[in-house]
Structures are given as structure tokens and as C-alpha cells.
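Known limitations

Files may contain more than one protein. Parsers should not assume a single record per file. Below, a two-record file is shown to illustrate correct handling: read the sequence, read the C-alpha cell line, then continue until end of file.
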Amino acid sequence: MRTAFDFSPLYRSSIGFDRVFDLLENASRTPSVDNWPPYDIARTGEDAYRITMAVAGFGQEELSIVHEPNMLVVSGERTAEDNGDYLHRGIAGRPFERRFELADHVKVTGAGLVNGLLTIDLQREIPEEMKPRKIEIGSGKAGSRIEAKAADKVATEKQAA
């Protein structure tokens, strides 16, 4: 079942959320993907996250983590193939690529592989210029301030001449 959402009313009352609406539209279009390897996403702090992936059988040299702008790509490919005579093969060793869409200003702070679990730590670091700041309100009218600045400029030009 496919449902199309109309985001046009939200465009009228929100500014700068175009990327979010595009993500929502694209999420409904993507077909269901392979859910291997299994993974968890946990929030470990107010602006901290951790992805844990079960990658049994993969070594550090067979895994790759690439942080692109707003995207985290985790891939794995086994290099050595065991040519044993298997009666049952339940441990998947096929290559994989898992993509995670990241919000703005989310950075990878570390990764580790312990007991077949790959953990990737993420931190949202908002730049200082994007943090809320208080704007002081003057006591005079805005128009009179502009006129005063213009008068000061004219007086400075007359003195220079």
C-alpha cells in the first residue's frame, strides 16, 4: 500500500525544511532493502548516538566506514573464502553496504569492532554561529537610529572635504 502525502501546506508555514520534506518523499519511494547485517541505533546522550552492527565473521580490514556529507556508508567484503564442505551455512559472509542518512552537523567520533559487533559513535556538534543568541532591543525608534547614523555620515564627509 502506497500513500502519497501533500507537503504543500507545510511549505507555506516553514522555511528551510525542504531537505526534510525531500527525505520523507524519498523514504516512501525506496523499495524494501535487505535487512542484513542487523543493526541498532541508540541515543546515548542529548546529542550523541551509537550505531551497533552485527558483523560476525568480518575482520577490521574487511570493513569500511566512510563519512560523506550527511551520509554514513558502512560496507564489508570478506577477502578470504573458506572452501570447506558445508552441510549447513547459516553465518552470512556476503558483501554488504548499509547507508545511514545523517542530519546536519552530525560527526563520527569513533568506531570499534569487539566480539563481532561494530560500534560507531556519532555526535551532533552545532557550530557556535548557529546556536541561539539573544538580541538586545534598543530604547529608541529604529527609524530615528537610521536617520542619526545618516546624519553622522554626512557630517563626517563634510569634515573630510
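...continuing to the second record:
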Amino acid sequence: MWNIPNTLTTFRLFLIPIFLVIFYLPYSWAFFAAAFIFWLASITDILDGYLARKLEQSTPFGAFLDPVADKVMVCAALVALSEQYQSMYMTIPALIIISREIIISALREWMAEQGKRGNVAVSNMGKIKTAAQMLAIIGLIWQYDTWMNYLSFGLLYIATFLTLSSMLQYLRAAWDELTKNQL
């Protein structure tokens, strides 16, 4: 159970409260440090999946914990950013992204119960969405300067569009199962 990929995933979970504490510290360096921690957590997300496949160390524990760590990390950051920015331009995309994560998690669980988990496996669009989302969140946390904030908000809106698109793609793939036995 405690292989390198699972250790990286657990480390990512460990970083979440550290990220939040540093994000709220009243020091000039806090946003940069919080952005760095979020970046580090994002890198572990890339590495754990790659290493699990490369080293053939995929485990049921890792398959369970990895998406949980990803969703908790992103949701924690989006909630903190919504509170920080106090703007509908931050809150609405955050709510859409968080809602999509809940909907797709429930859909995947339900499809697994139907024996059709493969119908809603992670797609390339989902991977692109995740990359745009992570870069947007890092920039929004750092708050380095105006152009970075505009770029980060642009990426956040691209990620939000991809979030909705990928959600529709997953729902379309599951639609026959969802509407089966309906009058």
C-alpha cells in the first residue's frame, strides 16, 4: 500500500491544511508561499499517476485516494479564493467547478455500481481542464500583478468552459444508463 505514488498522494493531502494556513497569514510573502505549495501539490498530482503506471504500482487505495486528494485540494483553494476576491467573477466559476466535481464523482460511483465505470473514465478534455484549472488557481493565489491576475482569470474561465463541456461529455456517455427503464 505505501508505494511512491500513494506516498505522493498522501503528501498532497498533507499539504492542503498547510496551504490554507499560509494563504491566510498576514505577511507579504504568504500568497507566493501558498501558490508554491499549491504548485507543489499539483506536481505531485502529475507524478503520482505517472509513477503508478511507469512503476506498475497502481493500487485500489491509490485509485480511491488520488481523485479525493485532487478534489479536496482544488475545492479548498477555490473556496479560499472566493473568500479572498469576494467577487461573483471568482465565486461563480468556483461554484461551477466544485458542483461539476460533485456531479461527476456521483456519476462515476453510480456507473461503477452499474458495471459501466469505463463509460465515464477520465478523458483528454478532463486533463486539459485540470491543467488550465491548476495554472489559473496558482496565478490567482499568487496575485503577483495585474497582468497575471487577468491571465489567471482568463484561464479560470477557460477551465470553467472545459468543466461544463467535459461534464456534458460524461453525462452524454452515461445517458443511456441514466434513462434506462424510464416510461
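Parsers that stop after the first record will miss the second one. For reference, the second record is described as follows. Residues 4-179 form a domain with the Four Helix Bundle (Hemerythrin (Met), subunit A) fold (CATH 1.20.120.1760).
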